[in-house]
Amino acid sequence: MSNRPHITAFYFPNWHVDQRNQLHHGQGWTEWELLQAARPRYPGHNQPVVPAWGYFDEADPAWAARQIDLAADHGIDSFLFDWYYYNDGDFLSRALDEGFLAAPNRARMQFALMWANHDWHNIHPARFTNQVELLQGGAVNEAGFDRLIDTVIERYFSQPNYLRLDGKPFFSVYEIGTLIKSFGGVIQAAKAMQKFRDKSSAAGCGGVHFNAIVWQLSILASEVQLPKSNQLLEQLGFDSATSYVWVHHSNPAAEGFPKGSYLRSMRDNIAVWHEYAQSLQIPYGPNVTMGWDPSPRTLPTDRYEDRGYPFTGILDGNTPAAFAQALRHAQAHLRNTPKALNLLTLNAWNEWTEGSYLLPDTKNGTGYVEAIREVFGVAGPSGK
User: Fold this and answer.
1) SS3 of 149, please?
2) How far apart are CA 114 and CA 109, in angstroms?
């Protein structure tokens, strides 16, 4: 398809056993347990969601291969992994390191990292009081960032199917505010990013294409929203911007709680695409979100009231047909916006406990990935 955008889906890797999780939740724990325990919060609420493939181990290369085939067959060009790295090392990395990168068909897809540098709270599950415990701070120190740079370059940028834009490895940053906090100011953060570029260039990787996640509404308690400042983004050296999820730009409970309108959220976000296209000097790529329902991350026996994440409004009406409609709007926006980043982010491949997933469930089957192929087709064997 002419001028087809690169389509990347955010990948949330909490569906395998991780040592940090076991310290807080017990031996063998994964977030599948929350999905299985979920219950309806209002009449007609679609919970618990049941994955059509069952509760599989994403760190198993065979399961990773099955996901790659499904995604590639339906027009998804890459996974943008939510990648966690703290001062004492990484977290939730086995899905990528042991699953995706060990899959025999990994060449069918590209991948990249979105540094999820937010605080990690104990919301698995959250309780009615919503007094969440901080388990790990997202800010890193200079030594920790140096280790992050070396890890990314050696472990990931060197991979032949790492996503590159204009010859540079694509690296997205979730929280600009936390990035600045990590180094004590904008100038210091910019120097740290330049060091990343320099080390990547010296390693023969071609520098870094830095992508900023931008939003207008905070969801997590720790999220620090900064004003849309071209000067700030320019000072830090970001090359492009995109968004993570629709609820960062549209309150799902704006017209009542707990049910919110998927179509209203779509309209709000289409307006945001145009706003960013006009206001940002760097290219902006739109985001299409499949749904929003974080209720599985709340204790099922507690009342569900509007108490802040994960006790939030829930998007209703997010059928595969409505999702396809949103994809067509994104397609039109990219075609009609000359300076747009020709990249579309999707939320999400597997955010099951936030109600945003493209993997098949027992209700809609493969309807959501079929919508992607229907609108955009498939890029071809090279993923380009």
Assistant:
1) helix
2) 16
- Distance from C-alpha of 106 to C-alpha of 99, rounded to nearest angstrom: 10
Report pLDDT digits (tens) over 133-173: 899 999 999 999 999 999 999 999 999 999 999 999 999 99
DSSP assignment of 186-247 equals HHHHHHHHHHHHHHHHHTTS---EEEEE--SS--STT-------HHHHHHHT--EEE-S-GG
pLDDT digits (tens, 9 = 90+) for 103-116: 999 999 999 999 99
Is the overall model pTM greater than 0.85, yes or no? Answer: yes
Give, in degrees to the nearest 5, the angle at Cα 383 between 381 and 384.
115
Distance of alpha carbon 220 from alpha carbon 294, whole angstroms: 11
**259 phi and psi, to 5 degrees?**
-85, 130
Cβ–Cβ under 8 Å, residues 240 and 211: yes
Residue closest to 358 by CA, chosen among 296, 290, 279: 290
Instruction: Give CA–CA dist 48/293, Å, rounded.
Output: 11
Over the chain, what is the mean pLDDT?
Answer: 94
Binned at pLDDT 50, 70 and 90, residue 126 comes out as: very high
Nearest to 180 by CA among 116, 234, 236: 236
* Closest to 118 (Cα-Cα) out of 225, 23, 209: 225
CA distance 208 to 170: 6
What's residue 383's pLDDT?
38
Q: Output DSSP code: residue 353.
A: G
The two three-digit tokens of residue 90, written as one number: 């990484």
